Amino acid sequence: MLILTDEDIREDIRGFERRIQGAKANLAALPATAGTLQTQQNLKEKGRILTSEIEHVKRLIGIAEETLTDA
């Protein structure tokens, strides 16, 4: 059985925050327009995936914060 300390959880949260920053940077780097319909659809899908990743990781942070004993 793995026992996590508050510091382990805080480190995980910092890692989650870095993950969010990376996804936000990738989202911002996507071009606003594309030359073809297929390329535009691919960009839209990449944006959807990155947005979904950001929301997922925010939920993970919420769960992790709830487990902190001194929160």
Q: Could you give a short description of this structure?
A:
This protein is mostly helical and 71 residues long.
Q: What features would you describe in this structure?
A:
With 71 residues, the protein is mostly helical. The chain has helices at 6-29, 37-67. α1 runs antiparallel to α2. It is elongated and about 50 Å long. The model has no long low-confidence stretch (mean pLDDT 94).
Strand runs, count:
0
Tell me about the biggest sheet? none
* Sequence stretches where pLDDT stays below 50 over 5 or more residues: none
What class would the helix/strand composition place it in?
A: mainly alpha
Rg (C-alpha, Å):
17 Å
Overall pLDDT: 94
Number of helices: 2
Quaternary class? single chain
Percent in strands: under 5%
- Taking the alpha carbons of the first and last residues, their distance comes to 24 Å
SSE order, as H and E?
A: HH
Bin the helical content.
over 70%
Shape: elongated
Write the layout of secondary structure elements.
Blueprint: H1 6-29, H2 37-67
Helix pairs in contact: 1-2
Features:
71 residues; mainly alpha; 0% strand; elongated
